[in-house]
Amino acid sequence: MRSKQTKRLVILAFFTAIILVQNFVPLVGYIPLGPLNLTLIHITVIVAAFVLGPVDGALVGGVWGTITFIRAFVWPTSPLATIVFVNPLIAILPRVMIGLVAGSIFKLLQPKVRHTMAAMIPAAILGSLTNTLLVLGQIFLFYQSKSQMLYQIDTKALLPYLLAVIGTNGIPEAIAAAIIAPMISAPLLLRFHRKS
């Protein structure tokens, strides 16, 4: 029992270290595309949720969210970060929810399917889309009246703009998660749950 707990803590620390590297080494966690970034860090959170479970996945997501929040003040990843990610509901909550959603859906589907990958793919897609929809939905909710300051577009154009971001960023991020997260998670899951 103690050995399993130690192994879990080591793997949790490993995922936290990866999140730190992805946040601070250029082009490892974010690919800049104009005022927005194509994000890859969500894949690490999803893998953590598959291997360690939804609660630990949420913890890893919380680490990412906290870094996002702090960086918005000291070293923003994009011009929008200084306005949007200073709100902890936008910076932290969606990242925590990635782990909870992906891990919970995987846990729910795993006993019902023959192959583990069949449970991971939809869980990865939904975990990724959770982040996208919560971030963009809250931007619309909290910053609708400030859309000209944020995007140099009028209020009526904000919703179509955010929907376009879902198509250009959210869908590719979900596809990347559906491909990469299961490929990394399956061998880790086998190794982690193998009896010592």
UniProtKB/TrEMBL annotation:
Keyword Transmembrane annotated? yes
Q: Name one GO molecular function term.
A: transmembrane transporter activity
Task: State the Pfam families in the record.
Answer: ECF_trnsprt (PF12822)
Q: Where are the transmembrane segments?
A: 33-52, 80-106, 118-141, 161-190
Q: Which top-rank group of organisms is this from? A: Bacteria
Keywords, alphabetical: Membrane, Transmembrane, Transmembrane helix
Protein name according to UniProt: ECF transporter S component
This protein's species is Liquorilactobacillus nagelii
